């Protein structure tokens, strides 16, 4: 499969960012984590594109966007050593999410408690494929590109699966469970921390 890594924020023109945000928003609209964070369906559809725009631009700043040439699948990640400005991210998300920011802060806090500090590793935040192309191997192809890069660097890869299907896909790619599930409060869903050693 031919994939293309977008190498810098400058390569992410406005139309590409919009396309990727729409793709991610539609893919995660019914995700348990998104529903817990923004319960109202209409408001969730309104807020998710801006939410994902922050993640797309953050990953792009670290050369961490992989997408198919047609833009029908995307994988966002951060490389080893990435140090995002957490205060700036908090401010950006707060401006977007308003009253739902407390829910996001809860997610971020729990993720940070479970995130491995060592060894240095790639961190995959989101992956999505266009509806109708979801089981066609697009995400697996993008993940294969990232895993090959991680293997060449001798680095592990960490992610958190938000669904049983995501966990199953991770296991097929060589990931294993790492520690206990990250369970969100008030009857919220669980994230499944996963790790892959370099090969």
Please give a structural write-up.
The chain has helices at 14-28, 32-37, 41-61, 86-97, 101-114, 138-153, 164-172; strands at residues 4-6, 65-67, 73-78, 121-129, 156-161, 176-177, 182-183, 190-196. The radius of gyration is 16 Å and the shape is globular. Strands 1, 2, 3, 4, 5, 6, 7 and 8 form an eight-stranded mixed β-sheet that branches. Residues 1-10 have low confidence and may be disordered. α1 (14-28) packs across α3 (41-61). It is 47% helix and 19% strand. The chain contains seven helices and eight strands. β2 (65-67) and β3 form a beta hairpin. The chain starts with a strand and ends with a strand. It has a single domain (4-196), classed as 3-Layer(aba) Sandwich (Aminopeptidase). By secondary structure, it is of the alpha+beta class.
CATH superfamily: Gcn5-related N-acetyltransferase (GNAT)
- As a percent range, the share of strand residues is 15-25%
Average pLDDT over all residues:
90
Structural class: alpha+beta
- Name the CATH class: Alpha Beta
Under CATH, the topology can be stated as Aminopeptidase
Number of helices: 7
Count of distinct structural domains:
1
Q: How many distinct beta strands?
A: 8
Largest sheet: 8 strands, mixed
